[in-house]
Design goal:
- By secondary structure, the protein is of the alpha+beta class.
- The protein has a single domain, classed as TT1751-like domain (TATA-Binding Protein), CATH 3.30.310.
- It contains six helices and six strands, in the order E-E-H-E-H-E-H-H-E-E-H-H.
- A six-stranded antiparallel sheet has the order 1-2-6-5-4-3.
- Strand 5 and strand 6 form a beta hairpin.
- The two termini are 13 Å apart.
């Protein structure tokens, strides 16, 4: 399901089962998991009183080879390139929900108008992440 530009999906699987499926499928879409962040634990580390049933994870994906080549070509892309690889997974009233905000060609054109390769490549990578999510639910 899409809400504006936000891609959203649900699964009957637990959050951990979805993350494991994402990890298993990532390579087929030329991605790896750069990190997985359990926000409940992060909040607790900052002395935030967190409800027992709060579950929110940030999973950052990366095509490491392509990312490095892009950074070497134009280091300014780091501000734009690193952001759209974040998948958010949370428990919404007992349902595992996945949200992802892909960057459009128009957004990339506004952010870095001189980088023609990024205008095409980044939105294509975002679409592959959506395909990866769909394959993993």
């Amino acid at each position: 399901m899409e809400k504006g530009n936000l891609f959203s999906a649900t699964t009957k699987n637990s959050i951990q089962e979805f993350i494991e499926s994402l990890r298993k499928n990532a390579g087929q879409f030329n991605f790896g998991i750069r990190y997985e962040l359990n926000m409940k634990e992060e909040y607790k580390k900052q002395n935030v009183d967190v409800d027992d049933d709060f579950e929110l994870y940030q999973i950052v994906l990366c095509n490491f080879q392509r990312s490095y080549k892009t950074m070497r070509r134009n280091i300014e892309t780091a501000a734009v390139l690193l952001q759209p690889k974040q998948v958010v997974v949370y428990n919404n009233k007992g349902v595992t929900t996945i949200n992802y905000l892909p960057f459009t060609k128009e957004f990339v054109s506004q952010a870095l108008p001189v980088d023609e390769k990024l205008k095409e490549g980044l939105p294509n990578s975002c679409q592959r992440i959506i395909e990866l999510i769909r394959a993993s639910v």
